[in-house]
Amino acid sequence: MKQSDPPRRLIVGITGATGVIYGIRALQVLRELGIETHLVVSRAGEMTREYETQLSRRDLHALADVVYPINDVGAAIASGSFRTMGMLIAPCSVRSLAEVATGVTTSLLTRAADVVLKERRTLVMMVREAPLHAGHLRNMLTATEMGAIIHPPVPAFYTNPKSIDDIVDQSLGRALDCFGLDMPNMPRWGEGPNAVEIGDIDDDDDQADQDSKR
Fold first, then answer.
1. What is the H or E stretch that residue 206 is in?
2. Domain annotation covers residue 129
3. Structural domains in the chain (count)
4. Which of 7, 50, 72, 162 is buried most deeply by CB count within 10 Å?
């Protein structure tokens, strides 16, 4: 018997790394896409929200369909029998990365990530830290070998971003691609009115070569 498609629901984790805007924007976009969101925020994540935004705790939680306390290890998302599309941790601190990599989970957030991995679902971790020491890199490799996708919010500039919002949306859109979700109005390489074809680049190079020989 063919297993039915998983429900259109996604776990969103927000940790204490800088860049809480990625998690906030993810909740907004997922609601636009009709994806049910299950949110868990670490204590440090709530602190970062206060530092970096004007949103109250209630405002943030209102963006999600379901919100869980960080210590509620009996929550639905702590069980593999609760089917989801996977989990996005945005942003992801190096502490949360380490817990996932070692399997020693101390909160619902990292427990949910561990469950996603053991059920062979998609886990995307927008790790936000720099510079990285060898321990961070080893944990990234270990998590990748376990099936996670390490997806730092690295900005792309071929889109000619005009604002911080443009940069956030492009990075988040690439992360949502990992779940097969299409971010509305996200510019992509080779698409749209400003697309540059490889042949155009070659022709320009050929013309430059000819001009240099004159």
1. helix 198-212
2. yes
3. 1
4. 72
DSSP E strands in 42-187: the ranges are 66-68, 86-92, 122-127, 149-150
Q: Which parts of 71-212 are beta strand (E)?
A: 86-92, 122-127, 149-150
Beta strands of the chain (E only): which ranges? 9-14, 36-41, 66-68, 86-92, 122-127, 149-150
**What does the pLDDT look like over 6-25, one tens digit per residue?**
789 999 999 999 999 999 99
**Whole-angstrom Cα distance, residue 146 to residue 160?**
35
Q: In the chain, what is the straight-line distance between the N-terminal and C-terminal CA atoms, in Å?
A: 71
Q: Decide: 13 and 114 in contact? Cβ < 8 Å.
A: no
* Distance from C-alpha of 14 to C-alpha of 2, rounded to nearest angstrom: 34
Query: Nearest to residue 65, comparing CAs of 32, 103, 35, 89?
Result: 35
Tens digit of pLDDT for each residue in 109-160? Answer: 999 999 999 999 999 999 999 999 999 999 999 999 999 999 999 998 988 9
Q: Where does 131-202 show beta strands of DSSP type E?
A: 149-150
Domain that holds residue 195: 9-212
Rounded to whole angstroms, the Cα distance separating 45 from 147 reads 24
Alpha carbons 136 and 142: distance in angstroms, whole number = 10
Q: Which pTM does this prediction carry?
A: 0.88
In a domain, 1, yes or no: no
- Whether 3 is in a domain gets the answer no
Q: Which residues of 138-177 are buried (b: 16+ CB within 10 A; e: fewer)?
A: ebbebbeeeebbbbbbeeeeebebeeeeebbbbbbbbbbe
For residue 156, what is the domain's CATH number?
A: 3.40.50.1950
Assigned domain for 33 exists: yes
